Amino acid sequence: MGRHRKQRSLRGYRHVVAGVAGLAVIAFVLALVLAPTDLEPANEQAASSTEESRSSVPATAVTPKPSSPTVTLAFAGDVHFTGRTEGLLADPAMAFGPISQELSAADIAMVNLESAITERGVEEPKEFHFRAPPVSLDALAAAGIDIATLGNNHAVDYGSVGLEDTLAAIAAGPIPVVGIGPDAATAYAPYRTEVSGMGISIFGASQVPDRTYQRWTATDTSPGIASTADQDRLLAGVSRATAAGDVVVVYLHWGIEGEQCPTPEMRTLATDLATAGADAIVGTHAHLLLGAGYLNQPGSTAYVAYGLGNFVWWEPEASSDDTGVLTLTVQNGAVSGSVFSPARIDDTGRPQPVLAAQARRAVAAFEELRGCAGLLPTPAV
Predict the structure, then answer these.
(1) DSSP-derived 3-state class of residue 185
(2) For position 282, which CATH number holds?
(3) Tens-place pLDDT, residues 255-270
(4) Both 297 and 199 in a single domain?
(5) How far is CA 160 from its chain centroid?
(6) Is the separation of the CB atoms in 267 and 259 below 8 Å?
(7) Does 294 share its domain with 185?
């Protein structure tokens, strides 16, 4: 019997004894009301009545099982601290500005740091070179970023000396970095963590076939980046993490600069990674936004974001200043939802959130990119 039903019964008894004088009689009646919860029932009917009085839950009710935990993963694009963005490191805590709120809100946030972490070294023979001091990792951490990848074509822009400094900065830094290491075993290894009891493994690698890819892919005996030059090793790592029951994320550097649709090589790699068990595949390099959605592969729930564009961007002239934060919700081992929070890179190279009607237009434009990417708004299963 619930609390409110018990109060109604007490009022009925008080009406019966209203004309009876004496506190002893009232006490006696109250004792009769309360006694059944303490007395052994005389028969099955009494037992049923007494059991009902002990709980407000009907006998046929089933306590619902707790829902599966959800984890949010936020991703953004390429980050540089050179050119016009170098000055942002004067105040590392504010380097990313208001967009930090979107990154900090997620359980895990990740970007591509497209730069060697060094102040020394000799430039590699290539057109563009990017480097930043170790405080750049502090700026990432202050913005709510939990992990970065250096599996890209600028991580070794300053040769072996710059690579040595980069590895030292990572070892001493405030956040984990994937896609690079003193050997292949480290470079291709995922960062693994647990959130709300959910195991998550995150890999980083490059598919951009430039000098870094050709010369600086890590081997068993030499340092460098993780790349698809050793695709079998990458796929094997994804398969092992999947077999261990983890949610698997792969952050890739891939595509062609200025091309808004994924290449056949990108689509093939996404399919291969999904077959190996990857649950989310995200990437950058084209300097503009590309399509995002579920892989059009029967039986697959893999989510692919082919290009997240520039994010903290070093030069005024770029393929596009449109950017944003893509937040994925993961539940029951798969991506169950996505939210794109649009932004636009300002004159300082910093992404500024866009709001209201401008945001709605930006989200609609982002969703339209799914078409030439061959992706679906919901899983194929």
Answers:
(1) helix
(2) 3.60.21.10
(3) 999 999 999 999 999 9
(4) yes
(5) 32
(6) no
(7) yes
